[in-house]
Amino acid sequence: MTAAVDLDRITCTFAAKGGGSYTAVKDVSLSIAEGEFVSVVGPTGCGKSTLLNVVAGLLRPSSGTTSVFGETLAGINRHAGYMFQSEALMPWRSCLDNVTAGLQFRGEDAAVAREKGEAWLARVGLAGFGDRYPHQLSGGMRKRTSLAQMLILDPKILLMDEPFSALDIQTRVLMENELLELWSANRKSVIFITHDLEEAISLSDRVVILSAGPASHPIGEFAIDLPRPRDVAEIRHSPRFIELHDRIWHAMKEEVLKGYQQTRNKVVA
Ligand SMILES: Nc1ncnc2c1ncn2[C@@H]1O[C@H](COP(=O)(O)OP(=O)(O)OP(=O)(O)O)[C@@H](O)[C@H]1O
């Protein structure tokens, strides 16, 4: 079967601040199957967002090829929806107008866009909130709006860069469960970036570990064979979860310490 996303020996080298260059990721090969939920974890600054930007088509790698459903990616990845850590809502637009923005940019009929927007707001638990503005919503509600904004365009691939990391722990668990529910209803391929190993295990089919930079690359991957549907709060107490957590943490601990040391050295230098 053709992979949804196939990264073939991707290397990204940037110009460094004081001259010279910095290779963030080197020779990264990674495939994501259709309908698969893959989390990428790794030490801070190892290149997780860089890889996601490559898949989104926002960053052209220095070398290597990205294929999307078997076609070489050149330019923006039109099959992908993107959700960032930071707020991406337009403060001057109402919640409904934020959700329907992509449809409007595509030239969809206003009445149809409105109807779809309201249906999506209801699906993410925000029925009746369409006329509120982002500053009138809680952090969790803004995340739900962002989720609806991404899903309304029905992308085949979801690229999520620490989407829930700014939320308090209770809201975060609710959002993770909501994401799983929406995902299982209509399975998309997901690449989910997170620092949180528990979040990665509880959501994913597979967890990929990146090494510390420079020249970061995958150093291990683990199939997550926990049964679905999952309740992310409950599954964390299951013996299999604890076993997987121990194994993955063991595999990544050294890299996390290396990454931490490098960040410290950068600050001290
Ligand atoms: N446009 C750029 N120019 C120069 N260096 C960059 C650029 N983008 C990323 N980098 C560097 O590449 C490395 C990887 O960055 P990236 O943001 O991908 O890491 P990350 O794993 O997502 O980090 P974090 O876990 O802290 O979110 C970092 O050292 C960063 O400073």
Explain how this protein is built.
- This protein is an alpha/beta fold.
- Helix content is 39%, strand content 23%.
- The protein has a 6-stranded mixed sheet with strand order 6-7-8-3-9-10, sandwiched between helices.
- The protein is globular.
- GO terms for molecular function: ATP binding; ATP hydrolysis activity.
- Belongs to the ABC transporter superfamily.
Task: List descriptors.
alpha/beta, 6-stranded mixed sheet, 269 residues, binds adenosine-5'-triphosphate, ABC_transporter_ATP-bind, 4-stranded antiparallel sheet, Rossmann fold, ATP binding, 8 helices, 2 domains
Number of helices: 8
How large a portion of the residues is in β-strands, by DSSP E? 15-25%
> Using only CA atoms, what is the Rg?
19 Å
Average of pLDDT: 92
Question: Which strand order do you get reading across the main beta sheet?
Answer: 6-7-8-3-9-10
Structural class: alpha/beta
- Looking at the overall shape, the CATH architecture of the largest domain is 3-Layer(aba) Sandwich
CATH topology of the largest domain: Rossmann fold
Oligomer: single chain
Order of helices and strands: EEEHEEEHHHEHEHEEHH
| Poorly predicted spans | none
Shape descriptor reads: globular
The percentage helix is 25-40%
Task: State the separation between the terminal residues, measured CA to CA.
Answer: 49 Å
Task: Give me the CATH superfamily of the largest domain.
Answer: P-loop containing nucleotide triphosphate hydrolases
Protein name: Nitrate import ATP-binding protein NrtC
Organism: Usitatibacter palustris
Keywords: ATP-binding, Cell membrane, Membrane, Nucleotide-binding, Transport
Pfam family, one: ABC_tran
